[in-house]
């Protein structure tokens, strides 16, 4: 099976680069990693994101807000109504 190629045009040169087609998943609001375990078992490379450290999360993890405060402030009550 051929690897998919990305063609990059930079000025006068054309570069070809192989694309890694591995399944990747960003697990927002990851908590302890229950859902991530299922995704990992299904073949995904999982990275968790939560706003609090999760010491027992079994995969790579980023401690950050999944929805930045600036976004919620920009849309205000409309955004909060949408997610509640």
Automatic annotation (TrEMBL):
<dbReference type="InterPro" id="IPR029063">
    <property type="entry name" value="SAM-dependent_MTases_sf"/>
</dbReference>
<protein>
    <recommendedName>
        <fullName>DNA (cytosine-5-)-methyltransferase</fullName>
    </recommendedName>
</protein>
